[in-house]
Design brief:
The protein has a two-stranded antiparallel ribbon with strand order 1-2. The chain is elongated and about 80 Å long. It has 172 residues and is mostly helical. It is built from seven helices and two strands.
């Protein structure tokens, strides 16, 4: 917009700007400080043709604001506009309990069938724990593809590792 500041006739730009502001105001009825500085023009272009229920959007914003796992509150708005699919926008790194328990159950059942450890790293190497079946409390959820390198916080990218191997793995 700054490139148009010296234009003689800015009516078209004003109409567009007002359209963006009106759209934001109709979708997000609660104004939050995290809304400042977002790329609203890009978000408008990408999402303005979709219908949103402002009461549901407001409830979802408030719910996400209360979630301590969310590290990027600015990402909440695009996350909601995009159908609440892209958790990368929220910088969520922690697997929820249901995901951890489901992955643990699947991983443990497969390991017990094979007679090997349910920690995939214990199976490798010379460890005395090659056949140890760890309890849920003795394991940590781990991103197979590191979160910092684009790995999703999803069941497909979750594995349970014994605490020792999870700490040793680090950011790999």
């Amino acid at each position: 917009m700054s490139i148009h500041r010296n234009d003689k006739n800015i009516n078209e730009l004003k109409r567009y700007f007002n359209s963006v502001i009106d759209w934001i105001s109709s979708v997000f009825t609660d104004v939050e400080s995290e809304m400042c500085g977002l790329e609203w023009g890009r978000l408008y272009e990408q999402y303005h043709k979709q219908a949103y229920n402002s009461a549901k959007v407001s409830a979802e914003v408030q719910k996400l604001y209360g979630d301590s796992y969310i590290k990027n509150r600015k990402g909440i708005f695009e996350y909601i506009l995009g159908g609440s699919d892209d958790t990368k926008l929220l910088e969520v790194r922690i697997f929820d309990e249901a995901t951890k328990k489901a992955v643990y159950a699947t991983q443990t059942a497969k390991a017990e069938k094979k007679g090997e450890s349910n920690c995939p790293h214990c199976i490798i190497g010379h460890d005395a724990n090659k056949s140890k079946v760890w309890s849920f409390g003795e394991m940590d959820a781990d991103h197979v593809a590191a979160w910092s390198k684009g790995g999703a916080t999803s069941a497909k990218n979750c594995q349970m590792l014994c605490k020792t191997h999870n700490r040793a793995k680090g950011n790999r």
